[in-house]
Amino acid sequence: MSRSQDELDLPHCSPVSNEHLQDPPPQAMDADAVSEDFRHYYSYHLGRDKSCVSSHYTYAALALTLRSRLMERWKQTQLAYDQPDNKQAYYLSLEFLMGRSLGNAMLNLGLSKAVREAMTGLGLQLEEMVETEPDAGLGNGGLGRLAACFMDSCATLQLPVTGYGLRYEYGMFRQLIEDGHQLEEPDHWLRNGNPWELERPEYTQRVQFGGHTERYKDHTGRTHVRWVETSDVLAVPFDTPIPGYENGSVNTLRLWKATATDEFDLDEFNAGSYPESVAAKNAAEHITMVLYPNDSSENGKELRLRQQYLLASASLKDVLRRWRAKHNNDFSLFAEKNVFQLNDTHPTIAVAELMRLLVDRHGLDWDAAWEITRNTMAYTNHTLLPEALERWPVRLFRSLLPRLLEIIHEINARFLNEVARRWPGDAARLRRMSIIEEGDDPQVRMAYLAIVGSFSVNGVAALHSKLLVEGLFRDFYELWPHHFNNKTNGVTQRRWMAWCNRPLTELLNDTIGDGWITELSQLEQLAPYAEKAKFRKRWHQAKRENKVRLAELVAQDTGVTFDPDALFDVQVKRIHEYKRQLLNILHVIHLYARIKAGDTADWTPRCVLIGGKAAPGYLRAKLIIKLINNVAREINNDPATEGLLRVAFLPNYRVSAMEVICPGTDLSEQISTAGKEASGTGNMKFMMNGALTIGTLDGANIEIRDAVGADHFFLFGLTAEEVAAARQHYDPNTIIANEPHLTRVMDLLESGYFNPYEPGLFADIIGSIRDPHDPWMTAADFADYVRAQESAAAAYRDREHWLRMSILNTAASGFFSTDRTMADYNTDIWRLEPVQPLPRD
Ligand code: 26Q
Fold first, then answer.
1. What is the pTM of this model?
2. Rounded distance, CA 126 to CA 117, Å?
């Protein structure tokens, strides 16, 4: 049934080189050249002229102009990486939340000025062209955006790192708000084509599903395993160039698209069932049709497991293909020259797949293959919520990936032997640590497979990494303490400052030069300027300009008017109970109650913005969105709040919206229940852009506060330890009764004030706050949150004081660059040498 790769009817590269086919000369980087190329693409490639000027085509022409300049650099970079001595890393991730590419390409190619000049010369609005590009929304939130920031930093550091992911036809859903409810709309982001991707059919890989295994003996009498009668799918790679910042390097993001094999057509067609053959083709292509829109694992969905395996298998085969082209079947140096970073457990099936490929396909014995696998894989964990740890039913594995299940069982048997040798007679420990969770419906614990199959396990912030080894992974830490490490997250300052915040970038460049764009720690030099009144004034002007822009976005998308002189208080992130948007809205209700009670002496006018998507099946999160919208409606429509308080829910929060939001924010809400948010990365974007944080001691907030100093951070709430201790005797109803402010808020909420036409609508939410088993302990932190909010409001009224603190936040944000994060991964885990692109001949 399966035919070999060579029989696939695909384009391929001839091994005979054509000496006449020299590269054309390098392309000029000045405004005139950009303008000329732009007109060339517009007329001769897109076939448009001056009579039809739509931003879609001008965007496309500019994208092609930039892309052609990426191509030459891309080739020279990849040729350099492929020199046999270089070690390479592969970042395996089901999500890459790239956002838009145009501005990033302009910036990193060093073409910002030339492009602006060229477009002005052509009478075109660059802004409008930028807005035309759809976000590449191939991720849910933090984990996917982190992968995108990592790619930017690796290219900038000239590290040979390739991203491997899936080319979802439909990315993250578009969120509409209708009558306060979230509606989801499919995001067909590829509809108008994607100028940034390059299809590479010549590197197509075949991926097997289903079937069964058989044993056979080779001529020496050794037993081997064959996986047969499978239904195969093809994975076709699409490459996106990832330019480094003004360094001539271009890395690769390789995304796989699933397509049907020709056999579908032939076998079914010959059986006389053409329509069925087309239907089968469809089923294959479904695998990469849509991104799963939940950001804590949804267990047991077969299609999701197919996605994970397609990514793991196609990517490993791609790496092995390149290896074998140079080393044939000699894998002795493979682990020395290759490393795979697993972005959470989602691609962890790669551990078993690499074993399968080495043993079944390339003839290595188990121990040699295991040695290679364990020295090649590294795993990053992104969650502390036990319920979010991925588990797959063994029976699903048996039917979909039977050979991989056998391999997992073998890995587990050998691993449990090792545990038994270390702790003889400790049956409870064996049960706890087993990769297979026994029970009526046994499950594969993917995190355990990832730990057992790798040489490094890291968390994403100091607290998170500490809690991992004390809690979820404690047994494994006792066994292999040296495998565990921390790599605090970051964000790329190229997108999250240099691109998205022009007013502040200009001020920074004027003041300390532009070295911070590649070395963020240079922002330290700003600190002394916090004391200079003239500088503070310029800082204020930049922030105000950004607030005007944010207010325009809010007005356009919600109809709510924000006054740029008010305190802009912002919480944008996925909607989740542990992130406690509910606590935020309770505080908003409290402010409203104060206004209604006439308690407005020394008031700080405040505009509260909340945005984020709820997983479509997460009903309580959707109800929280509805509550926020209802509260916003009542407050904004009450004349008593005029000039004092505004509330808006921003629909369809996404990367490109954050590019407007974080520069215009004064107060960043990072208010998760301590011990629940692994790191957070929005917190870093806000800090870098001069926002102050109101937050709990959770995730990277702790490191943010340490960096900027306790006086410049609004801390509140229980610590992770106190949360754990308070749980035993948590009594929210007594807390509510004893806190007059909270009593008043709950009274308003329970009176139906915010749902006059929908009685009882919020009963579920009210019940959750009053539940002694509320895992998020919202009521416990309310009073302290209100206190911290009051101190933020007071601080804002002292403008000079606030500006000083704002400047010091930016100045202290140097640590939170993914350049630093990537340097840390490289020093402790990857051990790559930076590689310069080859010079052109
Ligand atoms: C798993 C199985 C099936 C379907 C979906 C999933 C799934 C998808 C996405 C599970 C989790 C995610 C995303 C998790 C995530 O974004 N975590 C965040 O990662 C950030 C980067 O490290 C941290 O800053 C955040 O604290 C963490 O919540």
1. 0.97
2. 10
Give the 3-state secondary structure of residue 32. helix
Give the helix ranges, DSSP H, for 664-798.
682-688, 701-708, 720-726, 732-738, 740-750, 763-770, 778-797
Asked if 550 and 779 touch (Cβ cutoff 8 Å), the reply is no
Task: For residue 410, report the distance from its CA to the centre of ligand 1, in Å.
Answer: 29
Are 527 and 811 in contact, with CB atoms under 8 Å apart?
A: yes
Counting from 1 in the atom list of ligand 1, the atom nearest the Cα of 677 is 26
119-152: pLDDT as tens digits: 999 999 999 999 999 999 999 999 999 999 999 9
DSSP annotation of 483 reads G
Which strands, in side-by-side order, build the sheet including 667-670?
645-650, 606-611, 567-572, 667-670, 692-695, 714-715
Query: Could you give the residue numbers annotated as active site?
Result: 382, 573-574, 579, 681, 685
Secondary structure class of 755 (helix, strand, coil) = coil
Q: How far is the CA of 95 from the centre of ligand 1 (A)?
A: 9
How far apart, in whole angstroms, are the C-alpha atoms of residue 503 and residue 588? 30
Give the Å distances, CA to CA, from 326 to 12, 175, 290, 334, 354: 18, 48, 36, 11, 19
Q: What is the mean predicted confidence (pLDDT) over 10-39?
A: 87
Atom of ligand 1 nearest to the CA of 699: 26
pLDDT at site 271: 66
Q: At what angle do helices 402-422 and 349-356 cross, to 10 degrees?
A: 100
**143 Cα–ligand 1 center, Å:** 5
Angle at 476 between CA 364 and CA 140, to 5 degrees: 85
Strand bridging mode 96-99 / 136-138: antiparallel
Output Rg (C-alpha) for the chain, integer angstroms.
28
Characterize the bridge pairing of strands 181-185 and 174-178: antiparallel
- Given a cut of 60, is residue 7 above it in pLDDT? no
What's the one-letter identity of residue 631?
A: V
Q: Is 819 in the pocket of ligand 1 (CB under 6 A)?
A: no
Burial class (CB in 10 A: 0-12, 13-18, 19+), 22: exposed
Angstrom distance (rounded) from CA 602 to CA 36: 59
Which SS3 state, helix, strand or coil, does residue 714 take?
strand
> 475: Cβ below 6 Å to ligand 1?
no
Full 3-state SS string of 699-713: CCHHHHHHHHCHHHC
Instruction: Single out the residue of 666, 676, 678, 669 nearest to residue 703, CA to CA.
Output: 678
Q: Cα(345)–Cα(669) distance, rounded to whole angstroms?
A: 28
C-alpha span between 633 and 617 (Å, rounded): 25
322 Cβ partners below 8 Å, 6+ apart? 82
Q: Given the DSSP bridges, would you call strands 223-228 and 181-185 parallel, antiparallel or unpaired?
A: unpaired
Pairing of strands 692-695, 714-715: parallel
Q: Does 672 sit in the ligand 1 pocket, CB within 6 Å?
A: no
Name every residue whose Cβ is closer than 8 Å to that of residue 40 and which is 6 or more positions away in sequence: none
- Ligand 1 centre distance from Cα of residue 295 (Å): 5
What's 22's DSSP letter? P
The answer, yes or no, to whether any atom of ligand 1 lies below 6 A from the CB of 143, is: yes
Which of 93, 150, 166, 296 to mutate to test ligand 1, by most ligand atoms within 8 A of the CB atom? Answer: 296
Say if ligand 1 is within 6 A of residue 677 CB: yes
Distances (CA, A) of 282 to 255, 265, 277, 551: 19, 11, 9, 45
Here the tokens at position 416 are 């449990």
Residue 88: which H helix or E strand, with range? strand 88-92
Question: How does pLDDT run across 256-305, given as a tens digit for each residue?
Answer: 999 998 776 566 556 667 777 777 777 889 999 999 999 987 777 999 99
* Per-residue confidence (pLDDT) for residue 2, from 0 to 100: 41
CA-to-CA distance for 362 and 373, rounded, in angstroms?
Answer: 14
